[in-house]
Amino acid sequence: KQEVTQIPAALSVPEGENLVLNCSFTDSAIYNLQWFRQDPGKGLTSLLLIQSSQREQTSGRLNASLDKSSGRSTLYIAASQPGDSATYLCAVRNAGKSTFGDGTTLTVKP
Amino acid sequence: DAGITQSPRYKITETGRQVTLMCHQTWSHSYMFWYRQDLGHGLRLIYYSAAADITDKGEVPDGYVVSRSKTENFPLTLESATRSQTSVYFCASRDRVETDSPLHFGNGTRLTVT
Description:
The structure holds two protein chains of two kinds.
Chain A: E1 4-7, E2 10-14, E3 19-25, E4 32-38, E5 44-51, E6 56-59, E7 62-67, E8 72-77, E9 86-94, E10 97-100, E11 104-109
Parallel strand pairs in A: 2-11
Antiparallel strand pairs in A: 1-3, 3-8, 4-5, 4-9, 6-7, 7-8, 9-10, 9-11
Chain B: E1 4-7, E2 10-13, E3 19-25, E4 31-38, E5 42-51, E6 54-57, E7 64-66, E8 76-78, E9 87-94, E10 104-105, E11 109-113
Parallel strand pairs in B: 2-11
Antiparallel strand pairs in B: 1-3, 3-8, 4-5, 4-9, 5-6, 7-8, 9-10, 9-11
């Protein structure tokens, strides 16, 4: 059974800092890994998807890396802004279905 | 509009009642999923479907029933609601098989069982 862990559970940083969110998984036979953002009371918005054959993906100030053999992914956020405050979740896909971590709640202080 | 639509957005029901949550997607995606999100448990998979008339259990299927007679619809029924089923329910879909097909989510249904 796939298990996904996100550390830390919560993170507070001042505006402008670069930061890294972590996601680890136990079963490395994955199809892909997807990072999501969730604002309070809202649905999940897809940020980045990394296929199992890829090492990283970039979108604007976001960069996600994948080390499948060690069961780890990181989401790097450059020059953080208050608008980045949200919960960030990673989801790991094995065959038909995806397993989610519990998320990291990020607060960026002005 | 293209996307996933869930209805209703909010629902309050009583213990023992039957309630159905609706999910409709316009992409003709093969796969559809139902997740519930609870504090302390994250998102947990209830049921999923690989195609019309094909469904499979997820991590927490007890107390729920699904059907998929059409590709675009995937209703979730709570046959006899319990307070432990108070949660936010998310429907998701994705295209078939390809490793680069992302999950897309609806806006969720907040269900309260009193």
